[in-house]
Design a protein that fits this description.
By secondary structure, the protein is α/β, with parallel strands linked by helices. It contains 17 helices and 20 strands. A 7-stranded parallel beta sheet has the order 3-2-1-4-5-6-7, sandwiched between helices. Strands 14-15-16-17-18-20-19 form a 7-stranded mixed beta sheet, sandwiched between helices.
Length: 504
Amino acid sequence: MVARTPGLLIRADASAQIGTGHVMRCVALARPWVRARQRVFLVTTKLPNGLVQKVREAKIEVIPTALAAGSCEDARATCAIADSHGIITAMVDGYHFDHHYQRAITTAGLRLLWIDDFGHAAPYSADFILNQNLGAAETLYRNREANTSLLLGPRYALLRHDFQQWRSWTRKVAAQGERVLVTLGGSDPQNVTAKVVEAINLLRQRRPDRPLTADIVVGAASPHLAELKRLIDCPDVQLHSNVSRIDELMADADVAIAAGGTTVWELARMGLPSLLLTLAENQRDNARYLSEVGVVHTLGETSNLTPEYLATALKDLLDSPTRRASMAARGQDLIDGLGVFRVWLNAAEYRLREVVSADCQRVFDWANDPITRAASFRTDPISPETHEDWFSEQLARPAPSFWIAETRSGEAFGQVRFTHEDPHPIISIVVAPEARGSGIGSWLIGAGCQQYFAVTDATAIHALVKETNIASIRAFKNAGFISSGAVKVADSDALCYRLNRGVL
């Protein structure tokens, strides 16, 4: 059932000139749709070969188009592709798409998630506008339709899935920084990386008795690989091309030298103190905001940058553990890693409705499913009479606490319910048998908690999960719950999780 729910169509491009950030953040955001077993397509005019592989590894189907990017013909073709695959949600990311493109997509009946950085495409007719930057404000989008929802600020930062495992990780700051990570985007057309390598070589010469290692990361779209290889003549400086796990390099580094693109959110989540370079006009404001809140130190435009100046700035940061500790803490406070989930929670093709009397048999069938009973703290089958009495009590509750989850076409796939325990309510969910393994449980948990917080004054929600229920544990963690210890429930070993108001 849920597997047949329409998926997602992405329209974005990448090249040495425009970089890879637009495509990569769309790939990050597409993961919940993929996990929900929905087909995801990327329609693109330009995509370097190395990036094609990354997109396909993310289980996204690539559809090339030769039409002029952002043109009316491009918009019509994109809508036709969506229609041919039964897609009803589109995601568009790129500065060459304007308000005419938006209008064409929405007029065709598609729900549109528009990824935006600086309000360049008014008037807005998209269903959702996502701007993850620190300077994102409602004033950028005053010229929009009344039904356009705004998803603004770093709480919606689009981190790749690899960074989810680091959500509870806290950086330990070394007294003396020794390892540098250099990552200047997927293309770096001006080859600013070469200037950074010169600065690192210069710093190594200035202090030969102090250890200094560096990982230089270049993307699949970089045209400067051969030149960089010639510049690096030291085993302590490693060049990495087309890296698959940059999160591990970030964890090992003490300092980063980075561009002001989408990687800044990953650096912040990893608590990696960074010297930020502005490689494009659209990076300037966000770099300034990040510097003002103490997450990075911005070095400004690269046209004025010299290896000598960069070497001095790098030395100062490596030699200051107090400064690095402050930057690390502020970065990890700013980015909690739930941005992709929050966007999906808002834009996914699901909804909650209050339970009604007609749901009695459905809820009974779900409750007595063998897997549901095995995951419960009381595993005996439930009799029809017991269920009917219990269900009547639920309907009689004065405050809403029981919802059915369904697709927008009305197909029910689960339930979420809250018991009013003291001091905090406890959540329980059931995913329909045909929807299991789809990753939909995290959405169900998040949507239910968001709804419950909206209709009550609860400050936190608890969840109790059997230690053996790995799928539920993963779903609650993905939805932002944190562990609060082990407990006994009905003679079973259980784990307690907690979600505070304001997280979602």
